[in-house]
Design the sequence.
C-alpha cells in the first residue's frame, strides 16, 4: 500500500474542498481508511474513517455534519468532502490505511500513511 493524498489548498471560510486518497500501488485489500489532520504546534488528530466495504463511517465531533468520507473501490480512492470549512480546520490532512477492514479513531490502528496535503482556511 502506498498512499497519496491530494486536493488541499486555500479556501475561504464557509467554502468546500474535496480531498482524495489513492493507493498508487493499487494494493488496497481489506483495509479500512482514515483521515487525520495536524495543525501547527498541535498533535495529529482523528477526522474520519471508513471500513473496507463502506458502510458505518465515524467522525470526530468537530467535523460531524460538515465532512463526509466515502470510497470508490473501483478507483482505489477514498474521499473526504469538506463543507462549511472553518479557520479551525486549517491543518495538514493525512490519509492512512489500517491492516484490518474496520478501524477506529486511534493512530495506532493505522499502518500506512500518505504524505499529507495542506488545507488552509482563511477567515
Sequence:
Amino acid at each position: 500500500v502506498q498512499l497519496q493524498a491530494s486536493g488541499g489548498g486555500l479556501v475561504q471560510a464557509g467554502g468546500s474542498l474535496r480531498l482524495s486518497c489513492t493507493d498508487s500501488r493499487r494494493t488496497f485489500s481489506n483495509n479500512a481508511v482514515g483521515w487525520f489532520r495536524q495543525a501547527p504546534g498541535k498533535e495529529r488528530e482523528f477526522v474520519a474513517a471508513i471500513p473496507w466495504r463502506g458502510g458505518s463511517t465515524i467522525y470526530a465531533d468537530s467535523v460531524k455534519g460538515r465532512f463526509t468520507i466515502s470510497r470508490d473501490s473501483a478507483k482505489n480512492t477514498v474521499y473526504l468532502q469538506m463543507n462549511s470549512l472553518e479557520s479551525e480546520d486549517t491543518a495538514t490532512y493525512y490519509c492512512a490505511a489500517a491492516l484490518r477492514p474496520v478501524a477506529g479513531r486511534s493512530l495506532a490502528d493505522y499502518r500506512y500513511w500518505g504524505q499529507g496535503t495542506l488545507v488552509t482556511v482563511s477567515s
In short: The longest strand covers residues 91-98. The chain has a mean pLDDT of 93.
